[in-house]
Amino acid sequence: MQGTTSSNLSAVVSIDLGDRRYDIRIGSGLLDDPAQFADLPKAATAMVVTNTTVGPLYAERLRVVLARQYQRVLVVELPDGEAHKTWETLNLIFDALLANGCDRKTVLFALGGGVVGDMTGFAAAAFMRGVPFVQVPTTLLAQVDSSVGGKTAINHPLGKNMIGAFYQPQRVLCDLDTLATLPARELSAGLAEVIKYGPIADMDFLAWIEANVDALLVREPQAMAHAVRRSCEIKALVVGQDERESGMRAILNFGHTFGHAIEAGMGYGQWLHGEAVGCGMVMAARLSAALGHVDAAFVARLTRLIERAGLPVVAPVLDDKDNVGRYLELMRVDKKAEAGQIKFVVIARPGEAEVESAPDEVVAEVIRASCLPA
Ligand code: NAD
Ligand code: GLY
Question: Which atom number of ligand 1 is nearest to the Cα of residue 193?
């Protein structure tokens, strides 16, 4: 309903970064509620950055609400997909900002999933050396992870999210209603990042997800609200202690070292980021077991949940001739790698993660075992 002011704010999670502190507001109807935008930075111009899928669904509603407080509201639609998370697409945002005479007070609004959010955030960090931006995430993955914490980036053909900046938004507005139009495959991809928070930080939450995964798959509103809130609370806590990933923030990358290799090795967009992370968590759990930190029952428990969430648990073969070599090569360009040595987030004990390197032979065995159906 266009222009409605009735919203239901179910939770506000604060991310404590001193004078860059901001709120993650979670609820339904937020996209149309002027109160959610009223205290954002003042400017003549707001620019909504979205894509060709999300724009037709939600951009007009956001444009109408923003027009109450900005003289000019521009809307830029980017091509959709991970394969477009590139310099060329980023330049479309700068082209639009410059062609429309935008100034350093212009506020950017990222309306979409993690791809739009990461690119808009990076554009905001770089345009005129930094303009304010607001995240309006519309995928589950973006609401529970990518819109929170200020990591912004584009991909390079040689590595995922390799070019970017830490740059925090002014606010994150998670309107749970937007999840109604999300394709089922994308919902499952988002669940991967929800599940992630259990083994790394909160085993009670893992048990809650196990009990509620079916409700989440049918988008039961209360279950969705709880999953988004608890995920954001955990992420806010971690980022509040280690904004620039000098230490503990790396635990949020559980499953990502293997996952990024899958994404890059398959070609961006073949496997969704969340699918790659889901399968990557199975691999990282196996590695944790191979290093003696957790038992086989833990690996089986996590694998079962990931499978129930509709995610792949058998890793793809990336190279018919030298599959292990290809995985290792791709993982050596991971941002956590130091001097070519791969670092993995492993589960030190259920509910606790740490960053470790592992002998190549152990990793090779995990890759071999993970590429075969159990
Ligand atoms: P995405 O942005 O590609 O969105 C998934 C698909 O859903 C797209 O086709 C999109 O157009 C569509 N879509 C979005 N909202 C919709 C809606 N409400 N209804 C219908 N369709 C909708 O993918 P994603 O999973 O949201 O994000 C993945 C990206 O996020 C990756 O590039 C990943 O690297 C990044 N990421 C970043 C961080 C971070 O901390 N910055 C964390 C995790 C992931
Ligand atoms: N998604 C990992 C992080 O934000 O650090």
Answer: 43
Ligand 2 geometric centre to CA of 256 (Å): 10
pLDDT tens digits, one per residue of 202-212: 999 999 999 99
Sort 272 into a burial class: Cβ within 10 Å, 0-12 / 13-18 / 19+: buried
Instruction: Show me where the domains of the chain are located.
Output: 9-181, 184-370
Whether residue 44 contacts residue 70, with contact meaning beta carbons closer than 8 Å, is answered with yes
Q: How many CB atoms lie within 10 A of CB 362?
A: 12
Compute CA 245 distance to the chain's CA centroid, rounded to the nearest angstrom. 15
Helix residue spans in the chain (DSSP H): 54, 60-66, 87-99, 114-126, 140-141, 184-201, 203-217, 221-241, 256-266, 273-290, 296-308, 323-331, 360-370
Q: Which tens digits make up the pLDDT trace of 113-164?
A: 999 999 999 999 999 999 999 999 999 999 999 999 999 999 988 778 899 9
Q: Which fold has domain 9-181?
A: Rossmann fold (3.40.50)
Instruction: Please give the CATH number for the structural domain made up of 184-370.
Output: 1.20.1090.10
State in Å: Cα 216 to ligand 1 middle: 18
Beta carbons within 8 Å of 204's beta carbon, 6+ residues apart: none
Protein residue with its CA nearest to atom 28 in ligand 1: 114
pTM assigned to the model: 0.96
